[in-house]
Each structure stands twice: as C-alpha cells, then as structure tokens.
Amino acid sequence: MSEFFSNKYSSLVSYVPGEQPKDMKYIKLNTNESPFSPTQKVVQAVREEVENLQLYSDPECVKLREKFSEVFNVEKKNVIMTNGSDEALNFAFMAYGDKNHPFVFPDITYGFYPVFAQVNNIPYEEIKLKDDFSVDIKDYLSINKNIVIANPNAPTGKEISLEEIEEIVKSNPDNIVIIDEAYVDFGSKSAVGLTKKYNNLLVVGTFSKSRSMAGARLGFAIGNENLINDLNTIKYSTNPYNVNRMTQAAGIAILEENDYYMNKCKEICKIREWTKTELEKIGFNVVDSKTNFLFAKSDRIAGEELYLLLKENGILIRHFSTEKLKDYNRITIGTNEQMEVLVQTIKKIIKEQDK
Binning pLDDT at 50, 70 and 90, where does residue 351 land? Predict the structure, then answer.
C-alpha cells in the first residue's frame, strides 16, 4: 500500500474472486458461471445498443424494470437494478449498517459479506453453521441485528425453507433481513413473494448464474417501496448510471426469453444430479445442492491436491484453504460433456494416487 492509503482500511481483507487464468484453455468449473451462451436475440440487442454508447444509460432503467416486473410479478417501484448483485448488497450494507446496527451472517457463506461490513465500518458477527453445513434458524430468531443469508448458501449449496425465512423475518421486525438468492433458480424457492408481506425483507438476485450474464454485470433487489427508495438514495449518491446501455438491452432481451433460461437451469440441475451420483460412486462425500455447483470431498485425496492435479489436467475447480473447508472443493456444473471429462479425470487421478 502507498503511504497515502487511509488508515481506516489498514485491516481490510479484500474479497478474492475466482481465478481467471490465461495461460491455457481450461474447462472452467470454478466461478459458477452458466455453461450456456446467451441467445442470438441477446447478442443482437447488445450489438444495436453499441451504436448509442455516446449517450448515458437510463439511470432509472425504466424499460428493464418494466419487463422485470412482468416476469417477477412485482411492481416497478419495488425493484432496483444494479451493477451485479454485489452492488445491491453493498448498497444495503451502506444503507442499513452502522455502529448501532450491526450485521450477522453465517461463518461459511459468500466471502463478500465481511468485506462489505469492513469497508463500510460496520460491526458484524459470523454465526457458525451446524456440522452438516446447514443454517440453524434458531440462531437468527429475535436477534435484533441486521441479517444477511445466502439462500441457497455458497459454497455449501444448502437451502433453508420459505417457512424458516418467514420465521426469521417475522421475529426481527426492527431490523433488515436480506436474502441473497444468487442461486435460487436451480431448485430452490424464492422469497420474493414475502416482500409483499414484510417491510423489512430485501431479496437480492443476479442475472449472472441462471441467465448467462456473468460478464454483463446485472443484479437487482426487490423489497418494500421505502427500502428501494433507500437503496436509490445510495445509488444516486455514488453511481447514478450504474447499469450500462448494453447490459440494460441484454437484460430486456433475456427476460423476453425467460423460459429458455429457466429450462437451461433445469438442464443444469439434471447434470448436477448425474455428477453427484458419479462422484459418490467413487467415494466422494457430496453435500446436497440446490445450486449450479457441488461441494464435495474425498477421503482418498486431499482437497488442495485434487484441485492442483485437475488444474494440471486443464480443469479448474474452486478450492478454499480455510481450516473448515480445506478438505472440500466447489465444482461448478458445466455441460454434460464437461462433467463427463471431469469425472473421468478424477477417476484417473485417484487411480494413480492408489498405486
């Protein structure tokens, strides 16, 4: 760091994104991207918008929010579009957190939550998951602190039910509850409907995973009109033109073909279950998943060793080095062909280990 870097960030530990190596072409199963490209309709919409890049994007995302409202069955006033769901989450931390309003979240979850708390100087507490990596909702009932829970959770893939979410929201009426639904389209149930019932619930989502837009950066938050006004206050105080013209055009085109992307999610779920079965056949312990990834370990090979050997064989997965997670790897679900290569490569690696 330079001598000019503010002391208030001296202890900040920044988020580490999944590696994006350029040394060779990999089967990329490490960052939970969709293996399916967007349709030609999306490509054409982006291409047409390129001609207008001399003009600012619509800061209100009116046309995008109109189409979004139709698909998600909410009113426009209850939606804010953001530069990825990370921006929506950061806006929420900024809007609702301070020294008198700390945040709580699981100790094993999306790694950006503690970063958002630290960078915004917000006290926070990490609540331990149970031994099976599930959230114990009793830990969050009437806790009287702001809450953020990824559902389904990452990197574990486990979910909590809508009934459990409602219990948490209902028992904390004086605090914000944020449900991060980045992976909800892969077999879980959304809490969006509950936002019409509770004024302290904010649901955050992304187009990155289930709608093939990781590179375009489009996220959203849904909640009570007053909550959305709060987030817009932060937005217009930091980056009014947060969603660029091409991303807005792509988002509209994707929503016009929403059934196509939801069917692709179902296809990914089928591939996920096939992969889980195949890994279990060769002795892996695989956590039940409602996401587009699997969280798995094997007693026959260490987590980091498997990650490194797969990388040598041109396959990237995600390894976490913390003590609780070091035995596990997170494996994004790719195409049928990619997952067949993965399984065969793992079989080969383990066979060589057993010699």
Answer: confident
Whole domain around residue 194: which residue ranges? 40-256
**pTM score:** 0.96
Closest CA to 205 of 261, 132, 130, 269: 261
Question: In whole angstroms, what is the distance from residue 202 CA to residue 227 CA?
Answer: 8
Under the banding of pLDDT at 50, 70 and 90, the label for residue 1 is confident
- pLDDT per residue over 134-149, tens digit each? 999 999 999 999 999 9
Kindly tell me the burial class for residue 55, based on how many C-beta atoms sit within 10 Å of its own C-beta (0-12, 13-18, 19 or more).
exposed
Decide if 266 is inside a domain. Answer: yes
Is the distance from CB of 180 to CB of 110 less than 8 angstroms?
Answer: yes
71 closest CA partner among 252, 205, 307: 252
CB 184 within 8 A of CB 151: yes
Find out whether 204 and 228 touch, Cβ atoms under 8 Å. no
Indicate the residue among 194, 221, 256 that finishes a domain. Answer: 256
| Distance separating alpha carbons of residues 232 and 226, to the nearest angstrom | 10
In a domain, residue 9? The reply is: no
Measure the CA–CA gap between 257 and 101, rounded to whole angstroms: 41
152-209 pLDDT, tens digit each: 999 999 999 999 999 999 999 999 999 999 999 999 999 999 999 999 999 999 999 9
The CA dihedral of 162, 277, 292, 105, to the nearest 10 degrees, is 50
Task: Give how many domains the chain has, as a whole number.
Answer: 2
